[in-house]
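Thread: Newbie trying to understand structure tokens

Hi all, I'm a second-year student working on a class project, and my supervisor (Dr. K.) asked me to get a predicted structure for one chain before our next meeting. I've only ever worked with sequences, so writing a 3D structure as a token string is new to me. If someone could post the tokens and maybe explain what I'm looking at, I'd be very grateful. Here's the chain:
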Amino acid sequence: MPKKNGQAIFSVVVALLFLALIIFVSASKFSLPILPLIFVLAPIVFIVTFINTDAALIILIFSMLLSPELKIAEVPAQAVVVRIDDILLFVIFSSWLAKTAINKELGLLRRTPLNPLIIAFILVYILSTGIGILTGHIHPLKSFFYIIKFVEYFMLYFLVTNNIRDKKQIKTFIAVFLVTCAIVCAYATTQIGVLGRTTAPFEGEEGEANTFGGYLILLFAVCIGLFLYAPSSVWRFSSAALACFIIPPFLFTLSRGSYLAFIFMYLTLVILTKKKRPLLIGILILAIFVLPAILPNRVTGRIEETFIPGKVYKPFNTRITLDESAAARVENWKHIFESWKRRPFLGYGVTGVGLVDTQYPRVLGETGIIGFWIFIWLIITILRYTFHIFNNIKDDWAQGLTLGFLAGFIGLLIHSFSANTFIIVRIMEPFWFLAAVVIMLPKIMGVPLLK
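---
Reply by user tm_fold:
Sure, no problem. This is what the structure looks like when written as tokens:
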């Protein structure tokens, strides 16, 4: 057996054993304490990372959607929770730093076009939040944990970019992503007809259906991208099968923001693909004519609820009536713009504008025009580089992965109008992992750099 294949198998086996242990303890009828177990397992993960970083990253991929939450503190109006994957990421990152300190050839940070913007964004968040704490507008503990979340996503990006070596390794990671998605969808499918809305495992009784919808949009796009471009029939068949498997649990999230994002994601695939476009167009036309007749009443009813009698708005002299949930998001925008005028440059800091259930006004209110401008520049940079990689890469499989990520990213940008998409753990951990993979494709596959 080739050495690289042996390492991949070892990584997957170690990750699966660790995952099985976490799930067993989390679901145990004996109520075994999870937190003490984590402190026991943390040194093991540290050692595994030091020996084989790929195994640790695979553990992390599985844990992104398959790990429970731990409540560690109470702050006003909200509990502070962390997830097992949060702890694992910090342990893995620490071990990797120790590894780079010993082996200088590994390097601390690989240069990527996103690094300066990421660092600038973190600094603005810390500065604006620090000012908010000093002026008494922010609860220090609550804001601290939110900042840690932001830093955590970017730690993951740096960790992955520094450990990407070749296409075979990337394929292993993507296969694990697809397997994880299949497990999560299998779990969600069992909820259809039992619970009100489908959610990911360990979401609690109420769940986070909108979050689950955003995750499925990203993974569906990756599946379709691989289906369109992968030369291997195994990849094409498995990706297409998983894409079909995603649809039922996605529909029963009953997330209207996710439905809208899905449309933009799919249209991006149709417009940008250079392969099988007639097939995608045919599916789209068929869906337009068939779906209204076959969609479950709960799904169509949820869409119709958006425009039931409620609050009336008149944008561009057009009368629109929105339900309470949709109207609340519109009111969030109005509230943020009024608050932003009083602190236009750095905003109020993390959590300084209260509960805002949509991404863009939240960034504007918390970091002001400076942070918002950096955030938009970061988005544009990801779009530019991903589009450049898609148009210039010669490898079909990698081109399909890039297209899927790009379409999924555009879907998430639309999703962000109805959710805090870019601070949600179950969406952002997969997103930043995949972003790191795609951004590193030019280095490992000889794509000319964007000037």
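A couple of things are worth pointing out once you decode it. Residues 359-392 form the longest helix (34 residues). The CA atoms of residues 171 and 397 lie 9 Å apart. Feel free to ask follow-ups in this thread.
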